[in-house]
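Please go through the sequence line and token line underneath and see whether the fold suits the sequence. See right below:
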Amino acid sequence: MPATVIVGAQWGDEGKGKIVDLLAQESDLVCRYQGGPNAGHTIVVAGETYKIRQIPTGIIAAKRSAIGAGCVVDPGVLVSELDELEARRHETRNLLFVSGNAHLIMPWHVALDGARERRLGRLQIGTTRRGIGPAYADKATRIGIRVQDLLDPKILRQKIELAAAEKNIWLQRVYELEPFDAEEVVEAHLHFAERLGPFVADTSLLVDRSLRAGERVLFEGAQGTLLDLDHGTYPFVTSSSPIAAGAAVSFGIGPNRIDEVLGVSKAYVTRVGEGPFPSEIEGADHARVQTLGHEFGTVTGRERRCGWLDFVALRFAVRVNGITSLALTKLDVLSEFAEIPVCVRYRLEDGTEIEEFPAHQSDFHHCRPVFETLSGWEAPIEEELPDAARAYVAFVEAALGVPVTLVGTGAERERVLALG
């Protein structure tokens, strides 16, 4: 179908990058619609590993790639990614398009992000400290600096001087940190402007024309459904909208122009940072899954918390995204287990059992998982799924009412089985 959104169906880190990379082979335009360099995709192609943070995954497949207005852009990170890709002989100049309406992550955003987390102590959110939240906050209060401001030195200087004057007060008086020299920041961003200016474009018009021409457009988010600012497990969420509807908002197209929504879920579940996690694995099996799945963050290196597959949360993701099919990644990680628990319901404090995600955060914070145990297959997955693995996939389809069309069985692009 012409327009497909690939969305994380859990707390992020579901292996979206590999699925986007796979489907990008048959796409004309790949679009990143939210987030910034706080989340990364790890892509393995022909034995080479790429760790993508800011640029859409499609660039590895030499596809036109766009960063939408709903993203926040760290110009230093973006320049370093461009330099790295070009050093590895990847074309970028005629393939990457960056929305002029996307907002910039400024150095004080990074400083404030870290300072606020440290000040919160045990109540911290668990951010990546990459300045994402403060950048989106300035966007919401209408004092942000946008990508297009790089193209006008006079406006850029005015905005940086104004913002620095305010942020330095916070840094010095509240957090007791060194202030930023506005002139140094201006000079650095004038340098970024020279490098990034050729990539700035009207990405809404780009997507509109691609769809009108009948081209295949793929939209990818950075985080997962349960980290959505409005619909996730607030306050332990990101600062933007990873759900599928965010793609239409970020690129300025009508929601009726999205044809398919492919949800991506691990065969188990992980999350990074603080917050409740009902199906979190206890005991030795946690370290076992973490090691087998190499569950460490692409950008931060942080350990990911691991849990058994959570159908209550997945059912919620299907509903809020309008998921039409599912990609189940890392099924091979479960190949060493004789039995595999799955969370089918939550039990609330009063003993009530629910199958739908609780609307009240207090219920979610205190709920307990109700598990069913499925048979493992204790065999490597090669060209076909073992019978017990196929039964596991069938259980997922029946529980969610959504077909599983792709199954990931390894890190490489080729280690994906198409079902149907």
